[in-house]
Every structure is written in structure tokens, then in C-alpha cells.
Design a protein that fits this description.
single chain; mainly alpha; Citrate Synthase, domain 1; Cytochrome p450-Terp, domain 2; 3% strand
Amino acid sequence: MQYIPGLAGVPATESKISFIDGQKGLLTYRGYDIQELAEHSSFEETTLLLLFGELPTSDELARFEDQLRNNRRVKYNIREIMKNLPQTTHPMHMLQVVVASLASFYPSTEYMKGATENQDYINDVTVKIIAHMGTLVAMWEHMRNGYDPIEPRTDLTYAENFLYMVTGEEPDKNWARLLDAILILHAEHTINASTFTTMVTGSTLANPCSVISSAIASLSGPLHGGANQKVIEMLEEIGEPENARAYIEERLKNKKVIWGMGHREYKTKDPRATILQKLSSSLLEGKSEELSTAFKTALEVEKICEELLGHKGVYPNVDFYSGILYQEMGFDVGIFTPIFAVARSAGWMAHWREQLQNNKIFRPTQVYTGAGKSCYLPVHLRGKGSAKELM
């Protein structure tokens, strides 16, 4: 058997949810181009598309939006769990712990075997998890700073409510629309590490709250979800656009990572990065010099990296611009990856539901590279030499 590190390119499942053409820089959700969805759809509508395979009717969309709005509030017990966490707890660790605890409030049964047998429960818990994700991240942003969280509102969209709960101010419509597009762009991306984690945990018929908690843990690693935070740190180190070339050349010389550059799937520019750059340019146009410095520096970094790395197929990925936009919105760097998790909960739940429809527990094999058959020796004999020497 051939061992392939990281299972790179090894088919692990069949799926109808999303598709990537890395050579052409193409990403589709259920056949719909991601650019069309980002420009014309909403996070709520895109979530329904991912979950059920079709764009909803106006009545179906309105009903789903109401369900999400009416499930934004969390039980007081959940707030107590959060209060008892150290204020230094990273938002991703909080999210992993609290989402896992939701299994106590929305328990599943041991005999849950598939989508048709338990459809009401599956639909109900899907709504609750997706609705709660944004609420929990926004709540913790206040609680970890010693303040009471802001209650969610039912008259706002998902993106608008998140902005309101984080800032405490009436959400700016332009920022809300951009955040909505960001949520759409992060909602799904085939079988990445956290989605594969979802499938593996889900294949055991674990409670869906435990399934999503395991996915959050996978996303928390800097090689997966934490790159957008690293991009901001990198841009802060560079400081000004004119410093970019020397910084990039020095890192390449020392074989260091250029954060936000390159992707395992894409050999051209990540289509999500292209969309974010376009949306960012139109929205940030006319803002003050101070606000747009990071964005201008990022454009210069991209230009230099394309010159130096384009021949290797290394271009910006979605993390390159998303972090800049989060910073422009006033978000603390600590919730960059949790926002990613909020969006990706739609894709995770879609893959969990798809896994249940034809479930088989994951049990890959291995290529054994350890010792051959060994001879056990009583402990009083082991000081006289190794087992191999005495045989």
C-alpha cells in the first residue's frame, strides 16, 4: 500500500455539495458559481442551498429566516457555562466547549441512523446550531472583557444581528452586506480538514453538537482557520506599502511562510479572494488614509508575491483579504477565526446530513513502520540486555 501524507488527493467520499476546479480557480455550491452567490444571495439563502440542494422559494426562505431569528437566544445555563470560563480563554476554545455543551440541551438518541428516520430532530438541531453560533461568538466578545453580552434582535438579518451584538450599535448596511458576502464565501469548501472531521465524527452517530465541536477544534489550528489572523500580524510587521518588497524577499530567502498566500487546491488566485478584493475596493474607497493603510499594503504584497511566486502557482487565498476586512469593521483579531466557524457551520451541517444519508463509519488503514515481533522479558531480566540481544 502507498502512504500519502495528509491523504492529499485521496477520495474520502462522494458529495453533491460543492466543487472546486483548482486550475481554473472555480468554486461552486450545488452548481452555483460562488461569485453569483456572493453578489446576489444572502447567507441565509446560501445556507438553505447547501443544506437541501436547491435555492428556496420566497416562502421557504422567509420561514427559514424566522427559524434562525427565533433561535438566536441561548439558555441561561449556557451563559453560566461561559461565565465560568477564564476571561483569557481564546474565542475558538470557548466556542468548542460551549457548542459541545449544547448536546446536553439538544440530546440525540443512540438509535439515530439516518436522515429519513429522524428528519424532524435533524432539521431542528441544524437550525439551532447555526443560529447559536453567531450569538455565542458575539456574546463572548463582551464577556471576555468583563461586560454583560448584548441580547440578539429578531428584526435583523444574520449578518446585521452579528454586527449589532458585537458593536452594540445599529449595523451599517454596507458593512452588513459585506459581512454577509464573507459568510457566504466561507460557508463551504469541499473536504477540508474541519469538514473531514465533521464527517468522521458524524459517521459514529455522535450527537451533532459534538460533531460540530470537533470541527471547531480542527478549524482552530493555524494551518487551517487561523491564517487570517496571521495575515494581519504580517501586515502590521510590514507597516507601510513601501516596506513590502524587502519584507517578502527576506521571508522567501529564509523559507518562511507568506501568510494568506497559496492554497492546496488552487493553482491560480482563490476565487473567493478575487471577490473579496473587488468588494473591499468598492467599499473602502473614499475612507481615510489611516483606515486603508492595511488594504494598500496588502495590494502591494499581492503584487510582489505574484511577481516572485506566480510561476509556482502561489496566489492569494481567501484569508488574505478577510482579515483586513474584519479589522476595518472593528473586530478584534481574536474573533477572526470564530467568524470563519460561524460561516462554515452551514457547510459542516450540510456534510453531516449528507453523511447520515448513506452512513458508514470511517475506518482507514495504515502502513505499519514499527518493530517486528518482540519477545517479552520479565522486568528482572531486562537489565542484562535488550530482548533482541538475548534471543
